[in-house]
C-alpha cells in the first residue's frame, strides 16, 4: 500500500514537473544585457535577434560609463542571476576571470578563431581559457588642423605610414606651425593621463610595458627609458604644447575650437570634428620613437557571460549574434561605429566609415587598415592590471601638472610593488 | 538719513563679493545650459568677457534633455523622494518619540545603535543590502528604491533632540486628561515640532534626490532610472554631452533649491532649536 502510494506520488510529481517544464519551454526567456552605451544603441541588433529567436527576449540595461565596472563587480560578485551578459573592458579580462566573474566559454573558441586575428583572440583569454567574445577593437589617429598649416605656410604631414614622423619631428613641426599661426597648442593627446593612449609614448620608447615577470606582476616603470619618455611627456606641458587644467572629457574642445595643431584620439571623434564649425582637419599616423618600432593602442570592449546567469545558453546565443555573426555585428555598428574585431565585418565597416567622412575618407581607410594590422600593441595581460593602470594614471597626471618625472615614477614603482605583491 | 561710514562700505563690498562667489557656480551652470555645446569650454582660456557672457543662446540643450528618457527619470526621482519623505517621517518621528519620551529598558543602547548606523557610509552596506533586496524580488521597483531611505538615523537623532526640548509638563497634563501615547504623539508633539519635521523631511528628500549607487544597483531597468543616474548617462564611453549635462544639472539643482528657499525659516529654526531645553 505504501509502495503504491509512493509510486502514485512519484507519477503525479513527474506529470507535474513535465507539465511545468512544457510551460517553461513555451514561455520566452528574458536575458539581461548590461552595457555603458546609450539607450537604443543595440535596438536594431536586439530586434533582429528576437525575430530569429522568438523564445528569447533581450532586456537592454545601461549604466553610466564610470559606473560600469563597479556595477558588474557588485552584481556578479553578489551572484546576481538576473545579470546574464555584459560588456567587458578587455584588459580587465584576466582580473575578472581570476575573480570568477566570467563564464568559461572555451567551447566557442573555434568560432572565435574563424573571425578574429590571433592578437584579438589573445585579449579574450586568461590562462588559455576563453572568457569573452570579441566585439570591438580600437586604434588612434593624429588629427591636424589644416588651416593652421596654411596660415604658417607649411606643407601638411603625410598620411603614409612609411613617412610617419617621430615624436621629436612632430613636436618640432608643431612649434613651427605655432610660430607662424595663432595656434595655442602644438601636440595634444586626448586621454592625457590614461595608460591606454600614453602606452606608445612610454612603452614605445623601448622601456617595456611597465609590467614584467611571471604573470606580469612585477612593476618596471622607473627604468631609464620610461624616465626619458616621461621627461618628453612633461615637456609638452612645461613648454605649452599641451594644456594643463583641462579634464580628458573636455579636451576635444581644444581641437574643435581650431587652436591646436596636432590632436591624437580615436576614429570615434570624426563625427564631432566633422560637425565643428570652422574646423578643417587632416589625418596622419601617430608618431613613433626613433630606433623603435611604431606602435598604436588597441583593444576595446568584448562580451562576457556571467557565471551566475539565469539563462547562460540564451545569453551566449545573443552574444554570438552581436560578435560572430557579420549581420549582427553590422546592426550594432549602425549606431555605435567602433572598429569591429570580426574580420568579415571590417571591410564593409571601413568602406562605410570612409564614405561618411569623404574629406578624409581615403587617408582614414589607409591609416586605420595599416595600424590595425601592423602596429597594434595590447595593454599588458595581468590580474593586477587595474591596480597598475590606476597608479600609473595618477602618476601621469602628476607629471602633467609639473611633478618631477623620476621621483614620480619611482614612487609609482614602489606603490605598484606593494600592491602587486598583495595580488601575488 | 545716516551716511555710510567707510567701514560699513567696506563690509558691504566684502559681503557682496562673497555672495558673488557663491552665486558664480550657479550662474555658470545656467549659462552653460543655454550655450551651444561647442561654446561651453571655448572661452575659458584666456579669461575674458565671453567667458561669462554668452554670445549665443540656444534652447537645444533644454529641448534635448526632455526629448529623451530624462523626463521619466525625473518623475521616478520625485516619486521616490516624496514617498520616502512621507513614510520616513512616520517611521523616524515614531522612533524619535519613543526614544525621547518613553522610558524602556535598553533605550540608550537602541539610540546609540541608531547614531552609529547613520555614521556608516551607505556605500559600505550597499552590496549586501542589494543581495537581501534581490532575495525579496525588489529589483526595478519603487519599493526597492524607497526602503533604504525610510529609516534615517540622522532624522531620528534630530527629531529626538527636538522632542526632548518639549516640556514634559505638557505630556503629564495630557496623561492626566486620559490621553494615550499615540494621542500625545499625534496631538501634542507633532504639531509643536513642525520645524524639526521640515528639517528631517529635507534631509530625507536630499538623501534620495542625490542617491546614485543604490539606484544604480537596484534599478538598472531604463523605466526605473532616477534622475542622478540618468544625468550621469549623458557621459558615455566615447562621448560626453556637456550641454545636456549642464541643462540636467541645472534642473536637478533647481528643485531642492526651491524647496530650501520655501522652507528655509523652518530649517534654520529647527537646527537652532535642536537640543534646546528651553
Automatic annotation (TrEMBL), chain A:
- GO biological process, any: maltose transport
- Cross-referenced SUPFAM superfamilies, in alphabetical order? Periplasmic binding protein-like II
Task: Write out the entry's keywords from A to Z.
Answer: Periplasm, Signal, Transport
A GO cellular component annotation in the UniProt record: ATP-binding cassette (ABC) transporter complex, substrate-binding subunit-containing
Pfam assignment, any one: SBP_bac_1
Q: Which PANTHER family match?
A: MALTOSE-BINDING PERIPLASMIC PROTEIN (PTHR30061), MALTOSE_MALTODEXTRIN-BINDING PERIPLASMIC PROTEIN (PTHR30061:SF50)
The family this protein is said to belong to? Belongs to the bacterial solute-binding protein 1 family.
UniProt name for this protein: Sugar ABC transporter substrate-binding protein
Q: Which organism is it from?
A: Devosia insulae DS-56
TrEMBL record, chain B:
Q: Which GO terms describe its biological process?
A: transmembrane transport
Protein's UniProt name? sn-glycerol-3-phosphate transport system permease protein UgpE
Species for this entry: Devosia insulae DS-56
Task: Identify its protein family.
Answer: Belongs to the binding-protein-dependent transport system permease family.
Asked if the record carries the keyword Transport, the reply is: yes
Where, by residue number, does the polypeptide cross the bilayer?
12-34, 74-102, 109-130, 142-163, 184-207, 240-263
Membrane topology per the entry is:
Multi-pass membrane protein
- Statement: the UniProt record of this protein carries the keyword Cell inner membrane: yes
What quaternary arrangement does the UniProt entry report?
A: The complex is composed of two ATP-binding proteins (UgpC), two transmembrane proteins (UgpA and UgpE) and a solute-binding protein (UgpB).
The UniProt entry, under Pfam families, shows: BPD_transp_1
Q: CDD domains recorded for this chain?
A: TM_PBP2
One Gene Ontology cellular component term attached to this UniProt record is: plasma membrane
Which function does this protein serve?
Part of the ABC transporter complex UgpBAEC involved in sn-glycerol-3-phosphate (G3P) import. Probably responsible for the translocation of the substrate across the membrane.
Q: Please report the stretch or stretches of sequence annotated as the ABC transmembrane type-1 domain.
A: 74-263
